[in-house]
Structures are given as structure tokens and as C-alpha cells.
């Protein structure tokens, strides 16, 4: 992995207040930064471009999974070997990207999760419990123990991107792709990362009830249907 051609992908929806800072700090770590403007109406795309990002645009809001798959399709076509993904609201610290890359190299991993469970005490009780319970249940479906599955701060190698698509359009995509990856024999590693804000309820578009149900359905499908295709 010593000569990986790496890009950063930032799915963004209504993130105009944060995106310039996130892009500028990410470009210090990764030369090629792509923002996927997922149907924003607040000028997110214009601010991302101003900050130096390459822009991919959805004319309407399709969801995080769809935004990431758009990025993966474009970046694989452009010849990149790996992609780091991070959120547009500033929760993920771009300065932590080297830790993801080092973990990928150390474990020769196809997917690396930047985990937050060492910071869970700073979360609200409901959100902390939700993360812990969902991580345990999804770990069972995947067949490998993970302490923090719903993190969007990740490293994806080309090997995985080319063979395991994000079929879901929303937040459920990231849980389902993890299950598919493990069940198909890809190497998945984790590394603890620092966070700007651990409990991101104020900036996240995640809907606890609706999206939790979608995640459950996607994980069941990934475990019992997709893994046998």
C-alpha cells in the first residue's frame, strides 16, 4: 500500500456552514478531495468548490449511501486505489486520516473503520445505547466483532469498492456494506480516532427510528440474501 493513489470523499447535504473548513483541512491530508453535493439548497456545493474540492452533484437529495456510491463510481473510473470517507459537518477530524491509512497498511485491510467507542461516555445516553446495541447486533450478522459500526469515517480499498456496491441509498448502506464485506472474506480493521463532536445530534440528518429500521432491514438482507449471491 506504499504508493496508493488516495482520494477523500465527503457526502454533503445542507452543510454550507461547515464544508469549507472540512475541505480545507482534508486537503492538507489528501490532495484529491471530492464533495458529493446531495441535493443541497443552501450553497453547499459552491462553498465546497470555493474551498478547493472537486464537486459531484445530485440534483435532488438521494441519501448518504447514494452519494457515496456516486463518488466510488467516479473515483474508480478516475483510477484511484482507495477512498477515505468523512462527514461534512466537522464531526470527523481530517487530521485523523493518517491513522486510517496506517491501519489499512498494517492490516492490509480492504475496509478500516475509525471507531469512537472509547468516547461513548461523551454521548447522550440514548444515542450511546443505540450505538452499542446496534454494533453488537450487526456484529452478529457480520460474523466479526466490532465495537462501533455506525461510523462514517472510513478507508475503502479499491478491491472492496469494485466488488461490493452500496445498494442502499441512506445511512443503512454503511452497515450493510460492512456485513457484505466480512461475509465475502474481505479484511476489515478498526482504529480508534479522535472526534470534534462525539454526539452529533445537532448536525446529523440521521433519523433514529426510521433509519434504525432501514438499517435492520438492510443488514438482514446483506446477511441472508446478498452473501449467497
Structure description:
By secondary structure, the protein is of the alpha/beta class. It contains eight helices and seven strands; from the N terminus they run E-H-E-H-E-H-E-H-E-H-E-H-H-E-H. Helix 5 runs parallel beside helix 7 and helix 7 packs parallel to helix 8 (208-224).
Mind telling me the C-alpha Rg?
16 Å
What's the shape? globular
In terms of structural class, how would the helical and strand content be classed?
alpha/beta
Question: At the first level of CATH, what is the class?
Answer: Alpha Beta
Instruction: Please give the number of β-strands.
Output: 7
Strand order of the largest sheet: 3-2-1-4-6-5-7
Examine the coordinates and then state which fold CATH places here, giving the name of the CATH topology.
Answer: Spore Coat Polysaccharide Biosynthesis Protein SpsA, Chain A
State which percent range the strand residues make up: 15-25%
Major sheet, described briefly?
Answer: 7 strands, mixed
Q: How many separate domains make up the residues?
A: 1
Distance between the termini: 29 Å
What is the average per-residue confidence, as pLDDT, rounded to a whole number? 85
Relative helix content: 40-55%
